[in-house]
């Protein structure tokens, strides 16, 4: 994984990006859940101030059945997520009218009838594609489900954004954020860190690129989270803020 991120970052040609938390755009079309004291609606039904989230259909025969206006499918992955032998689907939805809007990631679990149910929705697995200033945060984004029933979200860029890969898996019927991998390049060095959120171990590798032989050093640290990090509730960027990284 480290080699893949490094290769991508070396060959990609793009400007540095800026990261910012995104907001929900103004649009009267989606069905919404109101969050008390955090939003308002005018006479024509337009949404202001964030704090309202679209409500997607609970069942459908295909992934497209879960898409409402003004959203469209941006990323899609198929594979086995839970413990049965029916292929599930994960889709990332973006607001086609506003690429600075937050995105929804939907986990669709296949039933024996052939239909799908919306098992979980995350507004945190991926941030907005673009910042308020119009900067694209990551040049490459992908989701996949591997043979070990892991949902993997891969984000790769250059500059401050670096690269980040998150892994989710079902534990006790909840989709849990289990691992985070980060990679960054700077003047004279490259650093990659693997965080295992289940075991509470972080492993860092630092490569000195100022020397032709590019020597590397590794270090491990233990950490303890206050609770299990969930696909539905937790933003990986915020999780990273609580993990050991500043003093490597």
From TrEMBL:
Record protein name field: Lipoprotein
């Amino acid at each position: 994984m480290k080699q893949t991120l490094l290769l991508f970052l070396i060959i990609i040609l793009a400007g540095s990006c800026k990261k910012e938390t995104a907001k929900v755009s103004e649009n009267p079309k989606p069905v919404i859940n109101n969050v008390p004291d955090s939003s308002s609606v005018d006479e024509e039904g337009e949404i202001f101030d964030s704090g309202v989230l679209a409500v997607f259909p609970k069942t459908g025969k295909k992934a497209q059945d879960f898409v409402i206006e003004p959203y469209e499918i941006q990323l899609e992955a198929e594979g086995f997520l839970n413990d049965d032998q029916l292929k599930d689907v994960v889709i990332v939805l973006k607001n086609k009218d506003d690429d600075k809007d937050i995105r929804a990631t939907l986990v669709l679990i296949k039933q024996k009838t052939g239909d799908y149910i919306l098992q979980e929705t995350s507004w945190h697995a991926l941030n907005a594609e673009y910042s308020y200033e119009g900067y694209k945060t990551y040049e490459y984004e992908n989701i996949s489900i591997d043979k070990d029933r892991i949902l993997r979200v891969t984000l790769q860029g250059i500059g401050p954004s670096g690269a980040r890969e998150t892994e989710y898996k079902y534990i006790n019927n909840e989709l849990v954020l289990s691992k985070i991998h980060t990679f960054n390049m700077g003047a004279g060095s490259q650093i990659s860190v693997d965080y295992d959120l289940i075991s509470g171990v972080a492993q860092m590798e630092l490569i000195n690129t100022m020397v032709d032989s590019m020597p590397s050093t590794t270090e491990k640290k233990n950490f303890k989270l206050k609770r299990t990090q969930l696909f539905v509730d937790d933003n990986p960027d915020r999780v990273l803020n609580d993990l050991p990284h500043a003093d490597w």
